[in-house]
Write a structure and sequence with these properties.
By secondary structure, this protein is an alpha/beta fold. 38% of the residues lie in helices and 12% in strands.
């Protein structure tokens, strides 16, 4: 049995990943990060999902990120850009080195718990905007994870070349409870429907002929 640390944001992709890992028969623990993001509701959703699935869950504070990443719309009072995910203005939602920091901490927990791997929900829809979600980043991260500790850690990113639509289809098969997810970058209780994250989610549900439980 493989043992995985799932990096769980509480969004659609990582929640589907958590279900995917459990369906594969892995032993799973989940880790989430409070990095000062305005959409903290995603952490509540991550906790509720783990409670429902009986998965051990840690939330790690990265409050310092607001001090060193204040040029991101997710960690400042800057207005969140609206539009499609691939639009140039969506680069305002990049949090510098976020995935590298989170992956490093997840690796430390994996080594401590004697787990085999960390699992990341990065996917093809992220490639255009986020450098730390691209295949080249994951490839290099795999190399680092094998030598950074006495115990090598594998990086598992099964959605790396899948679209958001593919992930929605996978979630449909796995019967993922998407009512316990949060995608909107604005951070309100209801999706704004206009930020890049909301637009991409809406497209995925529409193409997959699914009804988003967050849309009333």
């Amino acid at each position: 049995m493989r043992k995985s640390i799932c990096v769980l944001s509480g969004g659609m992709d990582s929640t589907t990943l958590l279900y995917h890992l459990l369906h594969d028969g892995r032993k799973v623990k989940a880790i989430s990060f409070d990095y000062g993001q305005r959409h903290k509701r995603e952490l509540e959703m991550a906790s509720q999902t783990c409670l429902k699935l009986g998965v051990e869950h840690k939330i790690i504070s990265l409050a310092f990120m607001r001090d060193i990443a204040s040029n991101s719309a997710l960690t400042s009072d800057m207005q969140v850009p609206h539009g499609h995910y691939e639009a140039e203005n969506m680069k305002l939602t990049v949090v510098p080195n976020r995935n590298m920091i989170m992956a490093s901490i997840a690796m430390a927990w994996a080594v401590n718990e004697e787990f085999d791997e960390i699992a990341l929900g990065v996917h093809a829809g992220d490639h255009a905007i986020y450098p730390d979600c691209r295949p080249v980043f994951v490839d290099q991260l795999k190399k680092i994870a094998m030598i950074a500790n006495f115990n090598p850690v594998f990086i598992y990113a099964p959605f790396l070349h899948l679209t958001k639509n593919d992930i929605a289809e996978r979630g449909k098969v796995l019967n993922v409870d998407y009512s316990l997810t949060h995608t909107c970058y604005e951070g309100g209780a209801a999706p704004c429907g206009e930020c890049g994250s909301c637009v991409e989610r809406a497209e995925a549900f529409k193409i997959s002929n699914m009804i988003d439980p967050l849309i009333k």
